Amino acid sequence: MKKKLIVQAIALLGTAGWSEFATAQIQAAPAADAPIERVIVTGSNLKRTSTENPSVVQVISKKEIEQSGAVSVADLMAKVPALGSSNQVDSRDGGFSKGLATASLRNLGSASTLVLINGRRMSPAAYADPNAGQSTQYDLNSIPLSALERVEILKDGGSAVYGSDAIAGVINFITKSNFKGGDITAQRSQDGYGNFGRSGISGAYGFGDLEEDRFNAFVAFDFSRRDRTPIAEARAVHADQSRAMDGRLSSYYSSVSQYPVFFKESRLGSGSFNRYVSADLSCNPADIRTGSTALVPMLASDVMIGNKFCNYDGWQYEDAQGKAESSNVLARAEFKVDANIRAFAEASYSKSELEYAGVSRTLSRNKTTVFPKDGPGISFQPILGVNHPDNPTRGTAGAVPVAVNYRFTDAKGGSSNENTSTRLLAGLKGSHFNWDWDTGLLYNESKRHQVSNGFLYLPIVQRLVTENVPLKTIAGTPGVTVDSPLDGKASITQWDIKGSTELGQLAGGAIGLAVGAELKQEKMSIVPDARTVKGEIIGLANQYSQAKRDVRSVFSEVRLPVLKSVDVELAGRYDKYDGFSGSFTPKAGVKWTVSPTLAVRGTYSEGFRAPSLTQMVDGGTQYFLNSFEDKLRCGKPGADATDCLKSLSGVAASNKDLVPETSKSFTAGLIFSPANNFDILFDYYNIRKDKETDLMSPVAVINDPKLASRVKRDQNQGTWLRDASNNLIPNSGPLISIETPYINAGGTRTSGIDLELALRNNLGAYGKLASRLNASYTLSYKKAQSEGDPMIDLVGTNGAVYNDTTSVGEIPRLRASLSSTWSIQQHSLTATANYISSISMMAAYSVQEDGRVGPYEEPYCEYGRANRNENYTKFYPECKVKSMATLDLAYAYTGFRNTVLTFNVANAFNTKAPYDPSYSVAGYNSALHSARGRFFTVKANYKF
């Protein structure tokens, strides 16, 4: 067969990966007698040319991957404008997703973004993340960058074709196939100071020709090592501002150290231990501090104001990038059984080992609730009786019980994660009776082994209170701190069969029909440490799941070329999940070629996503809220600084009464070629999600009087606040814990515009120049956390700040990249400008006194208040995280035989990451911005 139309389009564009710009004008490029081979394009099961597809598909080619300078798949996806800020990154310890890197299209989360490998699903990671949109997470770290041939991103939702849960779209990672010969690549990346280092070696070897030898087999491998980089070495940040507002890398980190600080009750019997008594000051005199607001971020209400203590230097344990090693191997073979049947098999294994530094664990003067998996929580507070040997008031006339702050510095903090993935696929494909068919059996499992270091073992620590054992004795007791493991396993077993044919003729050509069926079993097992299950570990929450379910699906697709200029596509899918009624999700698309230079297209699709296994089954997930502002107490007489930056435990309870969420998506766009060397692609999208499965907002629970039963506060009336008449305010004690079950939330409405421009210039003796603009502009992102709440537009804001009843992250209005590649003889130079717009940090909506969500009388700057960060508005009077623009450069030289040398400089102008007050330790948002600064990658590739 002659050259594919898609390849001809690529050649015309001067660079691979531009199949979207193969317009009707490009369709006319082949000679009249040139047959066109039809292929499967992401978004359809029908063979076609790329120009016939009504759906929006962005293709990132192998060449573009190399020019990007990306050092991992996660790094590559971070450069795609259509991906939102709710991606997960694994650079630092913290949260439920540490060790993972995920993708989120349209800011709708990983649960709405279906990730495929060679057109088939990959197993979710064995994690239980209660945050919005993260209940199903696909780990990009398990995909080897070197094995990729291209990436295809379906932006309009592919629920009827690939799965009803592909609400935001599909990312299809396509690996090499029919590969012959050898290929090896070595690379090294780091910033100008030798930090953020990453080294890797990858390669592939294939042999056999399907037509001549009746088989082809290849194996690809990828090994990389990432160096630890402490926060102090993240230089591309606004360090002076972070130090002034958050104390970043200042001489003060924490007043809780291995030198204890003692507190007595504000009033005898009150249970509120917030009056400084004394501190052990036997540390190095250079480490002694006196409490003051000059010790940023100490607040004026902090009990340490005016009092001496020994500072704990925790900055040395804060990561900008954790240490990691990853290895991937992929093998694929295809056999030509006869003229009509081919057998194929694929096997892959990946392993990533990640290590994160962290500070040592502490005892706090405040009451802590330790949660077993089942049963009520166990309250613990380190109160030393009057006869305790460490009580500084012991033997005095005014002897009283005291509470203590203490850090177990002999125990290592931080954590480690080991994630592995095994994928096995075998199948047959062929052609019979005018049908092209494909069937395969897939097994994909992911395993997780996480170890959290140095947590306090309650049965030993309790002896401090129950047996008057001295602190030093407790700290020196073997087993007082434990490294707590957590193991998980998730898997998918799937059999599928699909076929396509042509039947009948319409004015525009043959009618295409595709049908298929899938049987799938999902399993999820998350097993915490037995000591955590019993409620014996202080400060560590349970994550637990033991569940499986079967899913049965049938789907069909028909292509109707009703006219030579009009192509209609209809698709439908029926899914039956165990425990739910069956659901039908349709999709329709149309493309109208108005003229040789203009085509318009549009799609409509519906989606259906059953709650994840972790949201449905017994067990659920426990969590901790840190730096949480208790609006009832913060800044009020009788409260202290801990009420403004509270740490409390919570339970994300499973809910068997959840119903599936549904969605409706609409796209409309045009493809326009005003000149032979200029193409414009413009698409509008609109996505509506209803009955979203989400965690009830902690703010909504705490502030809504009707939900008071879900909030646990200290019931000692001595801790309660008093009103202006000095009367006790019932149930106003410090927060201890909260229950936030999963609910079917109100919904989300988002819309926006994708714009792609391509310009190609032949410079004659000076080579060729190809330029492309890729931009995603979000028009609106409206969300109602609970049914009946108003739809509030969060675009351009930190959603959880603008409306604190939501957990939506930052949603920049505009993300864009503009690249130009100049090629001449053995040289190629690419320059890429990247842009991310600003983020507002204004607070505008919350739960009002009547329990309803509504606006504040006047919006305010969340982090500019005295009890937060009063210097913030001095630096940022507009109350915004600033926009960020960077320039990347890539140079490739092919003058040596079989060798390509590549040199990349990311962020060539060393632009600093914008300061973000939401991330007080790092000082920037690593999901949106990078603090690597000017970042160099050197790569050598040799083919044999």
UniProtKB/TrEMBL annotation:
InterPro entries: Beta-barrel_TonB (IPR000531), Beta-barrel_TonB_sf (IPR036942), Plug_dom (IPR012910), Plug_dom_sf (IPR037066), TonB-dep_rcpt-like (IPR039426). The keyword Transmembrane applies. GO terms for cellular component: cell outer membrane. Residues 388-907 form the TonB-dependent receptor-like beta-barrel domain. Residues 1-24 form the signal peptide. It is found in: Cell outer membrane. Transmembrane segments: none annotated. CDD domains: ligand_gated_channel (cd01347). Its main location: membrane. Pfam families: Plug (PF07715), TonB_dep_Rec_b-barrel (PF00593). It is a multi-pass membrane protein. The keyword Transmembrane applies. Residues 52-170 form the TonB-dependent receptor plug domain. Keywords: Cell outer membrane, Membrane, Receptor, Signal, TonB box, Transmembrane, Transmembrane beta strand, Transport. PROSITE patterns: TONB_DEPENDENT_REC_3 (PS52016). Belongs to the TonB-dependent receptor family. PANTHER family: PTHR47234, TONB-DEPENDENT RECEPTOR (PTHR47234:SF2). This is TonB-dependent receptor. It comes from Pseudoduganella aquatica. The lineage of its organism: Bacteria, Pseudomonadati, Pseudomonadota, Betaproteobacteria, Burkholderiales.
